[in-house]
Amino acid sequence: MTVGRIAVVGASAAGLAAVEALRRGGWSGELTLVGDEPHLPYDRPPLSKQLLSGDWETDKLGLRTAEQLDALNMDVRLGTKATALDAGTRTLTLDDGDRLATDGVIVATGVRARTLPGLARLDGVHTLRTLDDALGLRTWLSGAPRRLVVAGNGVLGCEAAAVARELGHEVTLVGRDPLPMGRLVGDGVGALLAAEHERHGVRQLTGGLDGVETANGRVTGVRLADGGTLEADTVLLAIGSEPAVDWLRADAALDTADGLRCDEYCAAAPGVYAAGDVARWYHPGHGRHLRIEHRMNATEQAMAAAKNLLVELGVSQDERRPFTPVPYFWSDQYGMKLQAYGVLAGADRAETVLLDKEQRQVAALYGRDGQATGVLAAGLPPRQIRGLRAVIATPGPWEEAHQRLLAAVGAE
Amino acid sequence: MNITLDVDKCCAAGQCVLVAPEVFDQRDEDGIVVLLDAQPPAEQHAAVHEAAAICPAAAIQVDA
């Protein structure tokens, strides 16, 4: 084949892992990395943790130095958006008007913070997805104690609420779920988290967000769906995210209903692959499509997609391999670290083993259709937590997994 | 092979230990990474590179 060009769209963890895997895998042709933010690739999990708290400065988030990126011999286009992809001809259009003919494309555009109509530009209303978002919110948090309302009690809202509270602000956490992260982690772990937020003095309310109250173009409070209002100096919208697929919608060959739909090889169309938060791919082990917004998946999936693309292009003589990871995520709130393996989302069953409430030691099993698919733990020794991965590495019968979980945490 | 750990970045995921248990371990008290073998033999190199690549905190750097 002629050696042409591969374009990777998205310059965060997944995009970076993709370009590195492409070079490592033998791609010697042109390589273009497109990122809509102006920054070199940086790490996002610390945005709601060490960066927000002020423990870390921006330079600690950089994933590679400029020299390391130079060594990849790429055409890096930062501050540039991809506006269209013609999957049939693998032609990429950028917002600077450039059209790039490619041999292959890896889509790694991630997700965007969801907002409410009319709120995005309002003074005092924040989202938390990008470095600039985090720095904007941090500026406010670095001042004297104020009133913060965090709308949304998923992982992001809970982490940000914990940081703000530890910095001494008056924090109200409002979510549709009666328990923090409840929809994901279930009632048992959710109750433990609720107690932790309560112990630290975060006010928790259940309810949807209807809108915000303003005066002179600045937020003064939030309106809840049940008609109540809360006064606030600042509001953080942590109400979920949307896959960044708008730019792919013009091509009817691509399914962008919830992220970019891919097969088990992470391919959305011939020569078009996806990785990271934006990719909804078929996981053969779970027998369904999954879209995973966790840091580790970004890297692992990007490496898998890059390898498979190189096989398809004839650069690698290997075989294409299905991407069948055991997903992993963690969340830090106060001194508590939650760690989970497998798939918790979409569970129809959750069982929590509370080992020690005072020490906040807990383990929990999640599953659906009689199969165990995920496990979560907090407060356990590292060796025990690592041992839990094997319990659900392959989804299996619930009872069997439950017994293995109890054995692994010494609670038989 | 030169392995550099940034223990300040380490998030105690333990993924490096799962991939390369002869090279990495975790402290019992907080799960922070510990380097068991700073000069691992050649047969460990692929696993060490893998561990560095998948570390969700980007806390492991490997040169050569």
Describe the structure.
- Chain A: This is NAD(P)/FAD-dependent oxidoreductase.
- Chain A: Keywords: FAD, Flavoprotein, Oxidoreductase.
- Chain A: It comes from Streptomyces ochraceiscleroticus.
- The complex is a heterodimer of chains A (about 400) and B (about 60).
- Chain A is about 25% helix and about 30% strand.
- Chain A has 9 helices and 28 strands.
- In chain A, the strands form 7 sheets. In chain A, strands 3-2-1-7-20-19 form a 6-stranded mixed β-sheet, with helices on one face. In chain A, strands 23, 24, 25, 26, 27 and 28 form a 6-stranded antiparallel β-sheet that branches.
- In chain A, strand 21 and strand 22 (about 290) form a beta hairpin.
- The mean pLDDT of chain A is about 95.
- By secondary structure, chain B is an alpha+beta fold.
- Chain B has a single domain, classed as 2-Layer Sandwich (Alpha-Beta Plaits), CATH 3.30.70.
- Chain B has a two-stranded antiparallel sheet with strand order 1-4. Chain B has a two-stranded antiparallel ribbon with strand order 2-3.
- Chains A and B meet through helix 7, strand 23 and helix 8 of A and helix 1 of B.
Question: What's a concise summary of this model?
Answer:
The complex is a heterodimer of chains A (about 400) and B (about 60). Chain A has about 400 residues and is α/β, with parallel strands linked by helices.
Keywords:
heterodimer, A: 412 residues, alpha/beta, FAD/NAD(P)-binding domain, Enolase-like, domain 1, 3 domains, 9 helices, globular, B: 64 residues, alpha+beta, Alpha-Beta Plaits, two-stranded antiparallel sheet, 2 helices, iron-sulfur (chain B), iron (chain B), transport (chain B)
Order of strands side by side in the largest beta sheet of chain B? 1-4
Coarse shape of chain B: globular
* Tally of contiguous helical segments of chain B: 2
Instruction: Give the helix/strand class of chain B.
Output: alpha+beta
Looking at the chains present, what oligomeric state does this protein adopt? heterodimer
Head-to-tail CA distance between termini of chain B: 5 Å
